[in-house]
């Protein structure tokens, strides 16, 4: 599986909780959230655009940083 890094405009635990909820709905993804650095790493075989669109559902600005 590929590990993708995203920058998400999270400011609090509520934001990271929203990210967790939308990613859990995707299924078959592993992810880590670094709230202080506003980073989310997602391990998935899904298309990057699918991951971006999913992250945007939490209402935050999302930027794709590439694979890690």
TrEMBL record:
<dbReference type="GO" id="GO:0005829">
    <property type="term" value="C:cytosol"/>
</dbReference>
<keyword id="KW-0479">Metal-binding</keyword>
<dbReference type="GO" id="GO:0016531">
    <property type="term" value="F:copper chaperone activity"/>
</dbReference>
<comment type="subunit">
    <text>Homodimer. Interacts with ATP7B. Interacts with ATP7A. Interacts (via dimer form) with SLC31A1 (via C-terminal domain); this interaction improves ATOX1 stability and controls intracellular Cu(I) levels.</text>
</comment>
<keyword id="KW-0406">Ion transport</keyword>
<keyword id="KW-0813">Transport</keyword>
<dbReference type="InterPro" id="IPR006121">
    <property type="entry name" value="HMA_dom"/>
</dbReference>
<dbReference type="GO" id="GO:0046872">
    <property type="term" value="F:metal ion binding"/>
</dbReference>
<dbReference type="Pfam" id="PF00403">
    <property type="entry name" value="HMA"/>
</dbReference>
<dbReference type="GO" id="GO:0006825">
    <property type="term" value="P:copper ion transport"/>
</dbReference>
<feature type="domain" description="HMA">
    <location>
        <begin position="1"/>
        <end position="63"/>
    </location>
</feature>
<comment type="function">
    <text>Binds and deliver cytosolic copper to the copper ATPase proteins. May be important in cellular antioxidant defense.</text>
</comment>
<protein>
    <recommendedName>
        <fullName>Copper transport protein ATOX1</fullName>
    </recommendedName>
</protein>
<comment type="similarity">
    <text>Belongs to the ATX1 family.</text>
</comment>
<dbReference type="InterPro" id="IPR051881">
    <property type="entry name" value="Copper_transport_ATOX1-like"/>
</dbReference>
<keyword id="KW-0143">Chaperone</keyword>
<keyword id="KW-0186">Copper</keyword>
<keyword id="KW-0187">Copper transport</keyword>
<dbReference type="InterPro" id="IPR036163">
    <property type="entry name" value="HMA_dom_sf"/>
</dbReference>
């Amino acid at each position: 599986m590929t590990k993708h890094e995203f920058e998400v405009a999270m400011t609090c635990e509520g934001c990271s909780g929203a990210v967790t909820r939308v990613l859990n709905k995707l299924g078959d993804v592993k992810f880590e959230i670094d709230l202080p650095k506003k980073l989310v790493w997602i391990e998935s075989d899904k298309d990057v655009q699918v991951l971006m669109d999913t992250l945007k559902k939490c209402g935050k600005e999302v930027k794709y940083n590439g694979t890690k």
